[in-house]
Amino acid sequence: MKNLMVRTHTFTMLTSRLAVIVLFAALLSAAPFHAKLAQNAPNLGAAASFAVLGGSAVTLTDSIVTGDVGVYPGTAVTNTRSTIIGTVHAGDAVAQKAYEDFLAAYTALAGEQCTEILTGTLDGVTLAPGVYCFAAAATLTGQLTLNGSSTDTWIFKIGTGGTGALTATDFSVIMPGGETCNNNVFWWVADAVTLTRSFFTGSILAGDSITVTGGSLDGQALAKVAVTLTDTDVAVCGTPPYYPSIKVTGGGQIPVPDPNSTGRATFGFNAQPDKSGGAKGNLNYVNHVTGLHVNGPVTSIQVIAIYPDGSPKTIRFSGTCGGTCSFSVMVEDHGEPGTIDKFGIRVTDAGGPTEVTSQRVISQGNIQFHK
Predict the structure, then answer these.
(1) Which pLDDT tens digit goes with each residue over 15-61?
(2) How far apart are CA 138 and CA 132, in angstroms?
(3) Taking the domains of the chain in order of start, what are their residue ranges?
(4) Does residue 141 have a pLDDT over 70?
(5) Angle 265-269-270 (CA atoms, 0-180°, nearest 5)?
(6) 246 — phi, psi (to 5°)?
(7) In b/e form, how buried is each residue of 15-34, taking b as 16+ CB within 10 angstroms?
(8) Is 38 helix (H, G, I), strand (E, B) or coil?
(9) Which band of pLDDT confidence, cut at 50, 70 and 90, is reported for residue 63?
(10) Is-contact 337 366, C-beta < 8 A?
C-alpha cells in the first residue's frame, strides 16, 4: 500500500508540472498575437482634418494640398503657385486647438512600446501591423510593403534613443489592397523629416521641421516647427468628395519636370459621370522628357473645390492605364481662352514609372467644364 501511495503522489506531481508547462507554452505562443494588438492609433483630435500643420511657418510652392493648412503659434503661411483644397488657419483659435491636439498625439505615440527594432533602408521589406522602431536616425530608399487589412495599425518611431531624423529618397510605401490612403499608419520622428521624390503614406508627426520635395504624401505633415512643400501633392485621408454632374474636356501642354522647365508634356482627355454612378472617358498623357506615356479609361470623377457662387473650380478624375498602373488628374478651368487653366497629374505603377506633377498653367490648349 505504501508503494502505491508513493506512485500516486509522484503521478500527481508529474501531472501538475505538465499542466504548468502546457500553460506556459500556450502563453508563449500567444505573445506575438498580444504584441500585434498592443499598438494603438493616437487620437489626433482637431488636427485630424489638417493635411499640413506647423508651429512656426508653412511654405507651399507649386504643390497641391487637399485638407486644411495651419500654423500656430506662428502665423506665416506662404503660398506660391499652389492649390489648397481646404481652409487656411494662420495663428487662429482653430490652428491653436489643432496644434495642441497634435502635441498630445505626439506624446501618446512616444509612449508606445516597440514590438520590433528596425535597421536598414526597408527596401523590399514587408511588415505586418505593429510598432516598429529605429533607435536613431532612419534613411529609407526603395519600397516598403505593409501587409494587413485597411483597419490594422502600423506605427513607426524614429529616434527612440532620444535623437534621430527621418530621411527618405526615392522611397515608396505600398498598402494592403493597393489603396493609397490609410488612416492607421503613423510616423513618429524625434527630429526633422526630409522626403525627396518619395511616395509616402501615413501621418507624419515630427519633433522638428518637415520638408517634402517632389513625390507625394498620402496622409499628413504635422511638425513642431515648420513645414515646407515643393512640387508635391499632400492629401489627408477621408477628405469628402463632391460628385458632380459635369463633363470635363481638355488638351494642351505643361512644362516638366518643373514649372520653369523648357521640357514639355502633352495631354488630351475627356471625363464625365456615367449612368451607373461611376465615370467614363479617357486620358492620353505623354511626358516628352522622361518618355512616360499614359493612355487609359477614366473610372471616377469628382469636384473638390468650388467658387463662392457654387460653380466648380477644381476637378479630379482618376483611372487605370494597364496592369498595376493608375492615374489621378487635377484640373482647373479659368474661362476662355484658357491661357491660365491648370493641369496636374499623378501616375503610380508598382512595377514601373511613377510621376507626380503639380498643377501648372497650360499652354497651347484649353480646359473646359461642361454642365
Answers:
(1) 444 343 333 344 333 333 333 444 678 999 999 999 999 999 999 99
(2) 12
(3) 45-235, 247-370
(4) yes
(5) 165
(6) -145, 145
(7) eeeeeeeeeeeeeeeeeeee
(8) coil
(9) confident
(10) yes
Residue length of the chain: 371
Looking at every residue in the chain, the average pLDDT score rounds to: 84
Name which residue leads in pLDDT, 100 or 174: 100
Task: Give me the residue label for grid cell 495631354.
Answer: 267
Instruction: Report how far residue 228's alpha carbon sits from residue 293's, in angstroms, rounded to the nearest whole number.
Output: 30
The pair phi, psi for residue 67, each rounded to 5°, is 135, 175
48 φ, ψ (degrees, to nearest 5): -65, -30
Number of Cβ within 10 Å of residue 97's Cβ equals 16
Return d(Cα 279, Cα 271) in angstroms, integer: 7
Cβ atoms 303, 242 nearer than 8 A? yes
Against a cut of 0.85, is the pTM above it? no
> What region does 334 belong to: left with phi over 0, alpha with psi -120 to 50, or beta?
alpha
- 8-state DSSP, 111: T
Task: Give, in degrees to the nearest 5, the angle at Cα 237 between 141 and 153.
Answer: 65
- Of 107, 194, 189, 153, which is closest to residue 99 (Cα–Cα)? 107
